[in-house]
Write a structure and sequence with these properties.
By secondary structure, the chain is an alpha+beta fold. It has one domain: Heat Shock Protein 90 (2-Layer Sandwich), CATH 3.30.565.10. It contains four helices and four strands, in the order αββααββα. The protein has a four-stranded antiparallel beta sheet. The radius of gyration is 21 Å and the shape is elongated. The model has no long low-confidence stretch (mean pLDDT 88). The structure holds adenosine-5'-triphosphate and magnesium ion.
Length: 135
Amino acid sequence: MADGRHMWRVFDNLMNNICKYSVPGTRVYLTLERDRNMAQFLFKNTSKEILDISEEELMERFVRGDSSRNTEGNGLGLSIAKSLAQLQKGWLRIETDGDLFKAILRFPIVEEEPQTAAQMQEMTAADGNAPEVIG
Ligand SMILES: Nc1ncnc2c1ncn2[C@@H]1O[C@H](COP(=O)(O)OP(=O)(O)OP(=O)(O)O)[C@@H](O)[C@H]1O
Ligand SMILES: [Mg+2]
């Protein structure tokens, strides 16, 4: 379950970072997988710089990589994305390995309750096409 505006902001922050900090012309990998009751988005890109700052620090407010200094930014994008993920009962984690940058975003999957006959009738009643409910 997610809030569309929050989710949009999380993706916007992560995708903007990818555009700003990837080696130009290199591939970016995005995957969406299900792991039991969690949906996992994985973003992978090759960073222009080798990040020698810990993953936890990169997520902190106002922390930016060294070579990011000549681009615009406040070091807020990742920490905002993390807070918005948590607000939706999910989480965001960063993993770096040399110039490989990974952002892992996870959300719990909420299965939709099957609708009762009465609910279905209510939904279709508005257009005058309500199905007949038997039993
Ligand atoms: N996809 C990425 N690839 C490589 N480095 C990244 C990536 N995303 C973030 N970084 C590094 O992490 C730092 C922190 O990112 P964050 O989004 O929090 O701040 P910012 O992009 O510098 O500024 P803002 O998001 O406020 O404009 C960046 O300065 C950059 O060094
Ligand atoms: Mg950013």
